[in-house]
Design brief:
By secondary structure, this protein is mostly helical. Helix content is 46%, strand content 5%. The protein has helices at 13-21, 35-39, 50-58, 73-87, 119-129, 137-145, 161-171, 195-208, 222-233, 237-241, 246-260, 264-268, 275-285; strands at 91-93, 108-110, 178-181, 186-189. The strands form 2 sheets. A two-stranded antiparallel sheet has the order 1-2. Helix 3 packs antiparallel against helix 4 and helix 3 crosses helix 7 (161-171). It is globular.
Length: 286
């Protein structure tokens, strides 16, 4: 499938060709690096993280803040963090085993503790490394968002996530920083300055369920698929579809509903599926 326009830079074609042609000591061709290794590694190939994309969809362009009524984006951003770690090869879901454990009952296992270079991701990774026994995806979303009733887990909460992500976007030239007065208090806001990046992001979401729709989630780009699910879970997907015509809006929403209605355990069991990604989806659809 062609990669959507926008935020992912071109791969190193020569390196992929060399990987395919190299043979290991057993005389068998070495398995090429996976899409995730190339696409989601730490070589700065992705311009925006999944967390930054979801936040950018939720921010009001001129006002520079998310809706005061949105109480979903906090946990949604934590789900983004888990998927980012999975796509970067840092964590994975334990095997289903003979009893075929469901996605929500399987634990998150550490695969690599190598730093990612992203402060939020590394902070979450540190917590996971120090936790024994391992916890489920649902538990980690609650811990990282501070929604756990377990006082011993409150130290796991990632604080000021939206503000930290907004500052990342300021550093990348997408947003700027201003102070606004709301009668009884002042608030730091981050209005949009780079309309091109936001427009490309919105178009990428729209195209994924319209002109680039493939019907099979296993053939979709994992980041785009994750963006759709997590934007929906964060209650910001509507912002991407708002500019569409009535007919296109109806088609887009129907296809999103088709994705939400999938049997996620079945999808996660398919060859080459990232089951932790599907587990995060399940945590929000349960």
């Amino acid at each position: 499938m062609d990669r959507p326009d926008g935020l992912i830079q071109r791969r190193n074609i020569h390196r992929e060709a060399n990987d395919r042609n190299q043979e290991d000591s057993d005389g068998e061709k070495r398995r090429p690096s996976s899409d995730d290794d190339l696409e989601d590694g730490d070589s700065k190939q992705t311009r925006l993280t999944l967390m930054e994309e979801v936040l950018l969809l939720g921010l009001k362009d001129k006002e520079g803040y998310t809706s005061f009524w949105n109480d979903c984006i906090s946990s949604g951003l934590r789900g983004c963090i888990l998927i980012e770690l999975a796509l970067r090869g840092r964590v994975e879901l334990e095997k289903a085993g003979l009893r075929r454990k469901s996605l929500l009952n399987r634990k998150v296992l550490l695969r690599s503790d190598q730093p990612t270079g992203d402060v939020l991701l590394d902070e979450a990774l540190k917590h996971m490394k120090e936790t024994d026994p391992p916890e489920t995806v649902q538990a980690w979303i609650e811990y990282l968002s501070g929604e756990s009733w377990n006082p011993l887990k409150l130290r796991y909460q990632l604080r000021n996530v939206r503000e930290r992500l907004a500052k990342n976007l300021v550093e990348k030239g997408v947003l700027t920083t201003e102070k606004q007065n709301f009668l009884v208090f002042d608030m730091t806001t981050h209005p949009l300055t780079d309309n091109v990046t936001k427009t490309k992001l919105v178009k990428k979401v729209q195209d994924s369920v319209l002109s680039r729709w493939v019907g099979d989630p296993q053939r979709m780009d994992r980041r785009v698929l994750s963006l759709i699910y997590l934007a929906h879970a964060s209650d910001v997907l509507e912002n991407a579809f708002a500019p569409l015509s009535d007919d296109d809006y109806e088609v887009a929403m129907k296809r999103v509903r088709d994705l939400l209605d999938l049997d996620l355990d079945t999808e996660a069991a398919k060859p080459n599926a990232n089951d932790l990604m599907w587990s995060v989806f399940a945590a929000f659809i349960k």
